[in-house]
Design goal:
mainly beta, single chain
Length: 96
């Protein structure tokens, strides 16, 4: 699975993606509603949050996220509310 960077997530705003548990037994669709970039870590880091909306009940944890065109990645998701999920990324610019 690839590490998705800021630019890739930005292309998915408004798109439906599938999240599933790591065993791929439970899955649901979410909509990527926003990608919020932070500049607090300077130029050597890519810091951003991905906000997703869902009607499914999702507990905090690690998930597989997949999109037909973008591929598959893993991410850690927390619930901001019963309908809003968030995943936060702090990636070193030089890392692949």
């Amino acid at each position: 699975m690839d590490v998705w960077r800021l630019d890739k997530f930005k292309t998915l705003v408004g798109e439906k993606v599938k999240i599933s548990d790591l065993e791929e037994k439970n899955a649901c669709e979410v909509i990527v509603s926003d990608v919020v970039q932070s500049h607090n870590l300077g130029t050597e880091w890519e810091s951003f949050s991905v906000i997703m909306n869902t009607e499914a009940e999702v507990e905090q944890g690690s998930f597989i996220l997949s999109h037909e065109d973008a591929g598959t990645t893993t991410l850690f998701i927390t619930a901001n509310s019963s309908m809003e999920l968030e995943s936060v990324f702090n990636l070193h610019v030089g890392a692949h």
